[in-house]
Amino acid sequence: MTTKQPTDIVIAETSVFKKIHAYTANMQRYPRGIHSIVVNASMGKSVAITSYTENQPNSYYIRCHRFMGVRLLFKEILKAMGKDIAGSTIELLNSIVRYTELDNNPVLLIDEVDKLRDEVLEMFIDLENKLHGKCGLVFLATPYMRKRMENGVARNKRGFAELYSRMRKILWDINPSKAEFKKDVELICYANGINDVGVIAEMHNKCDNDFRVLTDLIIAYKNKKQK
Questions:
Q1: Which of 33, 108, 198, 215 sits in a 20 to 30 Å window from 171, CA-based?
Q2: What is the pLDDT of residues 136-181, one digit of tens each?
């Protein structure tokens, strides 16, 4: 039997976790437009979506960064699908379309999409055109994405109005309420063997709505208990 180290954190099905799984499952079954989910940093977004792709076939997780161009993004999509990443940019795009057409209810999960440059974001217009009704397309981002889209539309920046329309002008805010967050802290603590209500309340007060801080508090608590 493998013994977990104090630094191992057991994943709990928080409110954000459940909402991401539910929204993504719906988009995988009924692909239409671009489904955009926004949630504050340190709310377990990436953990939830990684868990989804590990347990749902034909779901592909791609994590973006600010230096990612169109060609690299296409390569990361194909890599997530386990496919060959050779070819020109248009060949890579055609490969993505071809492979998703062969899949059964595929979904692309584009995490941290708000970090992409404008010209890369604009490319999703073409990608959604080709994948419409064939493959779910989910954006995951911080709330900054909403301001960026609204500002882009207001300033008439190329492609923003069309992209925003493909999002149905909706960015689903799944940040937990105060009551939900308190319950989430309890769930995470219970999952990691912490049952003392006083300790849980202290961690809730100290973590300041940040699951990364909560994780550090739990690790420190476990280490202290083992000494």
A1: 215
A2: 999 999 999 999 999 999 999 999 999 999 999 999 999 999 999 9
Helices (H) and strands (E) in the chain, counts: 10, 5
β-strand partners of 62: 110
Cβ contacts of 105 within 8 Å, gap of 6 or more:
28, 29, 31, 58, 136
Answer for the pair 187, 50: CB distance below 8 angstroms, yes or no. no
In this prediction the pTM is: 0.90
Question: DSSP for 117-182?
Answer: -HHHHHHHHHHHHHHTTTSEEEEEE-THHHHHHHHHHHTT-TTHHHHHHHTTT-EEE-PPPHHHHH
